[in-house]
Amino acid sequence: MTELSRLRNFAIIAHIDHGKSTLADRMIQVCGGLSEREMRDQVLDSMELERERGITIKAQTVRLNYTAQDGHDYVLNMIDTPGHVDFSYEVSRSLKACEGSILLVDASQGVEAQTLANVYLALDHDHEMIPVLNKVDLPAAEPERIKEQIEEVIGLDASEALEISAKTGQGVTDVLEAIVRRLPAPKGEAQAPLQALVVDSWYDTYLGVVVLVRVMHGALKAGQKLRFMGTRAVHDATEVGIFSPSKKKVEALGPGEIGYVISGIKTIQDAKVGDTVTDERRQCARPLSGFQPSVPVVFCGLFPSDAADYEELRDSLGKLALNDASFQFEPEVSPALGFGFRCGFLGLLHLEIVQERLEREFDLDLITTAPSVVYKLTLTDGEQLELHNPVDMPEVTRIKTIEEPWIRATILVPDEHLGAVLKLCEERRGEQVDLTYAGSRAMVVYRLPLNEVVFDFYDRLKSVTRGYASFDYHLEGYREGDLVKLSILVNGDPVDALALVVHRSQAEARGRALCTKLKDLIPKQMFKIAIQAAIGGKVIARETVSALRKDVTAKCYGGDITRKRKLLEKQKAGKKRMRQFGNVEIPQSAFLAALKMGED
Amino acid sequence: MSRPSPADLPLPISERMSDTPGFGIYIHWPFCRAKCPYCDFNSHVREGIDQARWRAALRRELAHYASETTQPDAEPRTVTSVFFGGGTPSLMEPETTAALIEDVKTHWPTDASLEITLEANPTSVEADRFAAYAAAGVNRVSLGVQALDDAALAFLGRQHDTAEALAAVDLARRHFPRVSFDLIYARPGQTPEAWSAELRRALAEGCDHLSLYQLTIEENTVFHARARRGELPLADPEVAAGLFEATQETLAAAGLPAYEISNHARPGEESRHNLTYWRAGDYLGIGPGAHGRLTLDGTKYASRQHRAPEIWLQTVEQAGHATRARTAVGPSERLEELLLMGLRLTQGIPRAAFFRECAAAPEELLDMGRVRALAAEGFLELDEAGLRATAEGRQRLDSLLGYLL
Ligand SMILES: Nc1nc2c(ncn2[C@@H]2O[C@H](COP(=O)(O)OP(=O)(O)OP(=O)(O)O)[C@@H](O)[C@H]2O)c(=O)[nH]1
Ligand SMILES: C[S@@+](CC[C@H](N)C(=O)[O-])C[C@H]1O[C@@H](n2cnc3c(N)ncnc32)[C@H](O)[C@@H]1O
Ligand code: SF4
Ligand SMILES: [Mg+2]
Q: How confident is the model at residue A558 (pLDDT cuts 50, 70, 90)?
């Protein structure tokens, strides 16, 4: 157990790509947490997908041993958090385990939407914040200007902001010193009954459920009988330890410390994030306040390309959910796609990541249906229902009102692109709430219907601002809207996976755009393909994919039929990624891509 | 030397194009003078080939297979064709050719109209040997002319120019009763006008058989590497489709309709050996990398010989054969092979072939919903005679098969 005054807990927060994980690397190195050989860039981004995409998806905690200039040895618990808005839930629970934050800001890009969003989160948690300007090694870095921006936009005193380069290591020791000097030590009673917060939990094939906790009071030791106050479950602690970043057993975790406990728990549902752990024999008086569970905001159907893979898909979803409490799924049946699951996600990136993990780690071929938000319907007979899937939309005559979720979006954008952003928001039925300037940057706040955002809003925003805008949002509530169901028909058959709920004013444009996009995405085949968009029974747009003109291997290699068979096998494998609609095969990629369309 | 005409051949034409698949023997010669940048055949450039050793080894492997097919309880077979392919078999000493042909005739009864084809490259060196090959018994040559355009020949990395190739064709026609040649089209930048001019010139040579292949970029070739780097401007698929259609029309009008996707012949002049492949018949594959199909006791076996020339040679010298893999072809694979090969033919697949290969009628073997959908679109025909792809269907055969199987 560490003496409280020698302990500091902090999270690194920032906008995407501002260098959090790189700074974490440097701090691990300075503190000797990993050998030269074990080190690699963004070492905490250990999932294959994180490494490939160069982003952090899951927050990671590391204990560092640091000898400060005052001659004392300190224990620092560092949490590297993700920057993407879909994973802001990871940030907020990380903050709850710490007393302070390093607010990292890219010295050339400056304050962005997630910088702001994370600052507000940190303030909510009463965090002490140390502003740090990163990437000062870049020629485009303008630390002075960015400091002004921090003061103006965020209202944070930037006079003592540090200037560092996480890449070269310049200034990293200053950050460690500032953590020791400027962040408060945790408080807590060592003699009090155990009270610890479940910060995270995940499933490990070898260890079972690993629970990450922050001890508030008392001590957590192996052999203790633990009570999870929320779930009321009782488990024996078999092992207690920390990450440095490799897993290390310790005798005990004391007040203020962050570490893991293994206790024979089978599913993460039994170790709910936000729950309070106490000693069964000597219980604490009250549970901690915990946090709101994360709610999925985007839903879609996932179906196996091959119906025979249904069971496997169910098992795989179960395994994924073991490690991802914000991911939900329930069985669903579709006339065209057969048996599958309706799944809930935190956002489009989350959806994409889950889909990719299923395909990659579990080797499943999937059909993903159009992402949808949750609508609240009131029927003429007074019945109320939640609509997760556009396909389930009742007859128009039975519907009295449809309500849809709205968000409050904050967009930061350089002046010269402001016009384009305003236009985009207006097109998406947005309502301006606020527009302020900080230097040459504008901060716009809009209310927007979430369904206008889940499709291609990010992509559009990126393209109209050439990547210079940043975007953050949170849910605000439900509002009534004039919404209709848009169906896509292929050779006359409706394609469930492409059914959408859209605002009446946009139905025609979206239907037309979808048809055009599909025309490009569906490869030419043996048969001519008619693509139509319809509202109710009325066709509002149509396109035709002409039949393939020629596709034949010129040379048949002597007696080597095996070779021809290989081509056929390859075709068959390709077909598994297609979905049959009458005589038409639609590649899986078309479903998602069709929905990511821009107006261009 | 007078040129023999088809009429001089021992059997009437109709017999050669009969529906029976026949029994062929393929003999592979794996060496070439240079490796062409588009070619992924089992062909290698080697210095100082020991012709006598190779001759002995090929003869030994042939004898090995002969012993299998001529077991007392095996059904008697009559060889209908021999094909010397490559590589460049015209680099094989005529003595070797002669010895192998003699061996075939000793091991098996041969058909009265036995077709013996030799693939030859149209360079002057090889043309000098034509008389000797003819004397050895070769009665058909297939020349790799590839293009009638010097720039194109250089692009294809060939060892000959147009004049030399045409001289070889001319000489071949004086020595062999049947002469065919190959052209590769849909080359980068080739215009429809240029190709039709080339075709007219090819037809003017008066051969009764032509193989016209669209350039295919095969893996593990120089062209593939160049294409991947974006250095090879490939023919636009629409343009290639146009060239294919024009080729079909021009050749049909000239009396050499397509009897297979890329093969054209005056009726009766089809390559009997290749028909054996396309009709799912039995054939032996002798030499490095050669493939075979042999039905023994109702089970069809697929065989492949060792690919690497040197290993093949040593293995045959030690073990009498260099069979690398031999596997039974299962029922569903037999149906696949029958369709894969048979639908390439204009004639299609006779009903009898379905019974022979799969012991059932096509209606019982195929997804009839799909057959009907393809028929409705005019791609496929199923009737009393059998199953065939129409011209429109053949033009899209890869997709058609992908849909059907
Ligand atoms: N030049 C320069 N590049 C840096 C510096 N710090 C980070 N980078 C680069 O910035 C990119 C993003 O760095 P990360 O550390 O992955 O950023 P992050 O904030 O963890 O990103 P998310 O986890 O996705 O939010 C990487 O390419 C880093 O190499 C720096 O000080 N200087
Ligand atoms: C075994 S090969 C060559 C025979 C002989 N060695 C020659 O080159 O003349 C048979 C024929 O296949 C054709 N061919 C080979 N590779 C090809 C490719 N990549 N694309 C199209 N045709 C090809 C050529 O026309 C060639 O003549
Ligand atoms: S095309 Fe003919 S000559 Fe050229 S490498 Fe291939 S087999 Fe040899
Ligand atoms: Mg990161």
A: low
d(CA B37, CA A20): 51
List chain B residues with pLDDT less than 50: 1-17
Distance of CA B210 to the CA centre of its chain: 12
**What's the Cα-to-Cα distance from B332 to each of B365, B397, B401, rounded to whole Å?**
9, 19, 14
Place of tokens 């999270």: A11
Q: Is the pLDDT of residue A598 over 50?
A: no
Q: Per the structure block, which two tokens stand in for A227?
A: 């009570």
Is the CB of residue B313 below 6 angstroms from any atom belonging to ligand 2? no
Element (H, E) at B107: helix B94-107
Q: Per-residue b/e over A70-86, b at no fewer than 16 CB within 10 Å?
A: eeeebbbbbbbbbbbbb
Nearest CA to ligand 1 atom 32: A135
Top-tier CATH class for B13-277: alpha beta
User: Which one, of B261, B19, B95, B324, lies nearest residue A551 by Cα?
Assistant: B261
Residues of B in contact with A547 (CB under 8 A): 377
- DSSP 8-state secondary structure symbol assigned to residue B90: G
pLDDT at A323: 72
Assigned token pair, A131 = 């502003």
pTM: 0.64
**Mean pLDDT confidence for A183-194:** 95
Residue matched to tokens 């000693």: A279
Fold of B331-405: Arc Repressor Mutant, subunit A (1.10.10)
For A288-303, b/e burial (b = at least 16 CB within 10 A) is bebeeebebbbbbbbb
CA distance B290 to B28: 6
The tokens of B264 are what? 């054209």
For residue A128, count other CB atoms closer than 10 A to its CB.
Answer: 14
Q: Model confidence over B188-217: pLDDT tens digits?
A: 989 999 999 999 999 999 999 999 999 999
CA–CA distance, A180 with A33 (Å, rounded to integer): 18
Residues of B in contact with A557 (CB under 8 A): 41
For A559, the closest chain B residue by CA position comes to B291
Q: How confident is the model at residue A576 (pLDDT cuts 50, 70, 90)?
A: low
Q: What whole-number distance in Å separates Cα of residue A576 and Cα of residue A235? A: 45
Over residues A113-154, the pLDDT tens digits come to 889 889 988 998 999 999 999 999 999 999 999 999 999 888
Where in chain B is CATH 1.10.10.920? Answer: 331-405
**Chain A nearest-CA residue for B283:** A559
- The token pair at A271 is 């170790």
What distances in angstroms separate CA A308 from CA A303, A304, A305, A589, B308, one per listed residue?
11, 8, 9, 20, 42
**Is this prediction's ipTM beyond 0.85?**
no
Q: Is A560 on the interface with B (CB under 8 A)?
A: yes
Of B293, B398, B403, the CB nearest to A553: B398
CA distance A354 to A301: 12
pLDDT on residue B13: 38
Residue spans in chain B of domains classed CATH 3.20.20.70: 13-277
Fill in the DSSP letter of residue A390: G
Q: A76 has which bridge partners?
A: A8, A64
The answer to whether B287 touches B29, Cβ cutoff 8 Å, is yes
